[in-house]
Amino acid sequence: MRIFMCLLKRELRALFYTPLAYAVLFFFWLLSGLNFFWLLQQLADGERLIMALQLLFNGPLLTFSLPVVVPLVTMRLIAEERRLGTLEAVLTTPISETQFVLAKFVSAFVFYLILWLPAVIYCGVLKGLCLEQGVVFLGAGSLIAAFTGVILMGLFYNAVGLLMSTLTTNQVVAAIAGFAILFGSLLVFMLMGYSTQYEAVRSVGQFFSTFAHMLDFSRGVIDSRVVLLYLGNSVWLIYTSIRILEWKRS
Amino acid sequence: MIRVEAISKQFVGIQALKQVSFEVGANEVVGFLGPNGAGKTTLMRMLSGFLTPDEGSIEVAGFDAIMNAREVKRRIGYLPEHCPLYPEMRVDEFLTYRAAIKGVLGRRVRDRLQMVKMQCGLEQVGHRIIGQLSKGYRQRIGLADALIHEPELLILDEPTVGLDPHQIRQVRSLIKGLAKQHTVLLSTHIMQEVEAVCERVLVIRSGEVVAADTVDNFRKDASLDRSVIMEVQCEAVAFQSLSESVAWIGIARMDALADGWLRLELNLEEGYLAEDVFAWAAEMKLVLRLLQTIESTLEEAFVAAMDEKTGS
């Protein structure tokens, strides 16, 4: 655990050494701000308060920017180590591939959580506004469900990015591949979920659609099947990354 | 310290190592010699635990390198080719991080950091960013990293490549100093480096070990023409007529010295040595004041070993 924390600390520091991390933070927080501004306007125009979390966590600005933002952060995880040759130096120390890959994954996930920090602040602002207006704010359950959705989606998105970074030495290729998979699946399953012609297509789309899942989570619905889907996918993606790293050495 | 038995490694379309076997004792300094692409780096990567062999076994300090990889890695300090470092980190920060992941605990980290910085001449640059340092300093940081956890075995893959002559001398003297407490495996194709630092050589060509011996024996065993230098009290014409009757002596050079003696460089046929020349000179009643074998250089021995293998 001590060694894992040591690896994690270095990874987090390394993330913030690059200007890209600050650019990504600026870009995503700006979109979060615009999204919140839009949400306030909707509420001022008479939108129901119950819709606030859906607008806050599932606004189109955030939904469609995450497939870009996450691969930009994860692209360097393993690919950069391989490019610099430091992978050889790290893997000839007594640490295991699992410790190394998990530290990489957790660092990217922590950065992802930092991206969502404004959402916590905006929830506080909304609560304050509600208190001022004498309106009862949404219960803790709805907030827990919404943040569970954010966490599960983060695990899955970062695991996809990690795998792409393990597969290639080129960071740009890793980022493009990650974007293609995340954005492609988001769009395809979302469109399938809205298909009215074929029932089977619609149900498959809805079952796999990140957009639909986030809508449910921000409505306060936690579906155990969806939780298992995200956790299962994240675990096998991370496991595959570890195995690929081991396999490339053998 | 190291026992390698019949290891082989194949990459896509390339047989990198073929049935390589050798042993290295404790506190020995062994040089891996071989042309580019001979398999030196692959072998070093296997010894360091970065690659696994397709077949055969590697044992380091009594531990199997595949079954007990972690124990083996604890005992190895490895400096990879091109010395990979994190350019954005500061020297102290990097070495502290490396010590921690290599299992150096608590207060010992600070002690080891001070020690390796002193050994590698890094005291003045501890706070500097690695990416801003010269190649020489970066190489020394790589060495300090390899030493930070006090390994029993040091594996150094071309540690002086890209350094200027002054830096090369510094790194060589550092390695020589380390050899007193560590077993050192050194990969290089700089012959002077091997002569300056190593006790034994292991020559690899096309993935096979073609020679494994002490530096002196390797030089002597090379199948080169034997040459001797001789100073004899005799006239040039007289010596020439005497030597014509002996088929195994060839005169490469003959100089009449100012004091009346004759200085000769003789090439001897294979199987003949300086003592045969001495016996012949005694038989001819020639007066000698100098008889010396010209030893081939390590470079000549290396080229001969390569040629012998190719049959050229």
Layout of helices and strands:
The complex is a heterodimer of chains A (250) and B (312).
Chain A: H1 2-17, H2 19-44, H3 52-58, H4 60-74, H5 79-84, H6 86-91, H7 97-115, H8 117-133, H9 140-167, H10 171-193, H11 199-208, H12 210-218, H13 224-249
Helix pairs in contact in A: 1-7, 2-4, 3-12, 4-9, 4-10, 7-9, 7-13, 9-10, 9-12, 9-13, 10-11
Chain B: E1 2-11, E2 14-24, E3 29-33, H1 40-47, E4 55-60, E5 63-64, H2 69-74, E6 76-79, H3 91-101, H4 107-119, H5 135-147, E7 153-157, H6 165-178, E8 183-188, H7 191-197, E9 200-205, E10 208-214, H8 215-221, E11 226-233, H9 236-244, E12 249-256, E13 262-268, H10 274-283, E14 287-294, H11 298-310
Helix pairs in contact in B: 3-4, 4-5, 8-11
Description:
The complex is a heterodimer of chains A (250) and B (312). With 250 residues, chain A is mainly alpha-helical. Chain A has helices at residues 2-17, 19-44, 52-58, 60-74, 79-84, 86-91, 97-115, 117-133, 140-167, 171-193, 199-208, 210-218, 224-249. Chain A has one domain. Chain B has two domains: 2-220, Rossmann fold; 226-295, 2-Layer Sandwich (Alpha-Beta Plaits). Chain B has a six-stranded mixed beta sheet with strand order 6-7-8-3-9-10, sandwiched between helices. Chain B has a four-stranded antiparallel beta sheet with strand order 2-1-4-5. Chain B has a four-stranded antiparallel beta sheet with strand order 12-13-11-14, covered by helices on one side. The longest helix of chain B has 14 residues, at 165-178. The model of chain B has no long low-confidence stretch (mean pLDDT 85). Classes of the chains: A mainly alpha (250), B alpha/beta (312). The A-B interface holds A 2-3, 6-7, 10, 14, 17-18, 84-86, 88-96, 249-250 and B 45, 48-52, 70, 73-74, 76, 78, 80, 82, 84-88, 97-98, 100-103, 145.
